[in-house]
């Protein structure tokens, strides 16, 4: 519920606590990955809206931060998929692997 209200820090705290109690809790793993993905999407929007001058000043730094968010999301989606191999999670993993140029991981999922 906190995630839907965009209270990201509270959601992250609660999902972390849930995973401390049960590291195999597929929904909590999925939602933790989704939080990082949501944050990366916000950066993507900022990057799209930047002028050329703004991009020159801070675009590469923001792209690097976005890539780090992708990397943080991956293990949560992988764990969720390992516990409950749902198509939605698989598709999310494939998209993240594409963004991170992890072709070997894409082939392993197909």
Task: List key phrases describing it.
110 residues, mainly alpha, 5 helices
Structure characterization notes:
This protein has 5 helices and no strands. The radius of gyration is 15 Å and the shape is flat. It has helices spanning 8-21, 26-49, 52-83, 87-99, 103-109. With 110 residues, the chain is mostly helical. The termini are far apart. The longest helix has 32 residues, at 52-83. Helix 1 (8-21) packs antiparallel against helix 2.
Structural category is: mainly alpha
Strand composition percent: under 5%
Radius of gyration: 15 Å
Task: Give the low-pLDDT segments.
Answer: none
List the helices and strands and how they pair.
Blueprint: H1 8-21, H2 26-49, H3 52-83, H4 87-99, H5 103-109
Helix pairs in contact: 1-2, 2-3, 3-4, 4-5
Short description:
The protein has 110 residues and is mainly α. The chain is built from five helices and no strands.
